[in-house]
Write a structure and sequence with these properties.
The structure is a single chain. By secondary structure, this protein is an alpha+beta fold. Among the domains are: about 1-30; about 30-110, no CATH class. The chain has three helices and five strands. The chain has helices at about 1-25, 70-75, 110-135; strands at about 35-40, 40-50, 80-85, 90-95, 100-110. Strands 1-2-5-4-3 form a five-stranded antiparallel β-sheet. β1 (about 35-40) and β2 (about 40-50) form a beta hairpin. The longest helix has 27 residues, at about 110-135. The protein is elongated and about 80 Å long.
Length: about 170
């Protein structure tokens, strides 16, 4: 019962930590921001200025979720001031669709984002698999010593042997 309570509180704490980390990082970004996946990259769009509130302009209004055509269409139609590319990263600055509007687009390739986020799940999977295999083959869960001849505790590390329930 204590293990269940501990695991529950650990998961809740992790979720709260992730939310607070997201909130902290989000506070440094502009309030007008949109994320989209384009050409194998995570595109982050931020804009400054006011877009006319007429319905025909919603196709280029990133704040409009209903009719916005997307970052790719926006990049095709805006006047690009600078477009810097290096190793799959991209930074585009421009405007020109509406008077006084400026757009700033940053592209981060997924090949940079995926490996760091896969490290912890890989270690978790390997750990779970190791524990499952040790239990399956009758080895000590703590050190991996073969316990087929041991009845009370592991002769290698002294951990108590749990009886196998059939």
């Amino acid at each position: 019962m204590r293990r269940i309570a501990f695991n529950t509180f650990a998961v809740l704490s992790l979720l709260l930590c992730i939310f607070l980390l997201y909130s902290c990082l989000r506070s440094f970004f502009p309030s007008q921001m949109r994320f989209e996946s384009v050409d194998g990259s995570l595109m982050i769009l931020s804009w400054q200025g006011v877009i006319p509130s007429e319905p025909q302009y919603d196709v280029f209004n990133p704040a409009s979720d209903r009719q916005f055509y997307g970052i790719r269409a926006l990049m095709r139609n805006m006047t690009v001031k600078s477009d810097t590319r290096m190793l799959g990263f991209r930074h585009v600055t421009g405007g020109g669709i509406f008077h006084g509007m400026t757009y700033d687009i940053i592209g981060i390739p997924y090949w940079v984002l995926i490996p760091p986020t896969a490290i912890l799940p890989i270690f978790w999977f390997r750990s779970r698999r190791r524990q499952r295999d040790r239990l399956k083959f009758g080895h000590c869960l703590a050190c991996g010593y073969d316990l087929r001849e041991s009845k009370d505790k592991c002769p290698e590390c002294g951990t108590g042997v749990k009886p196998v329930v059939s």
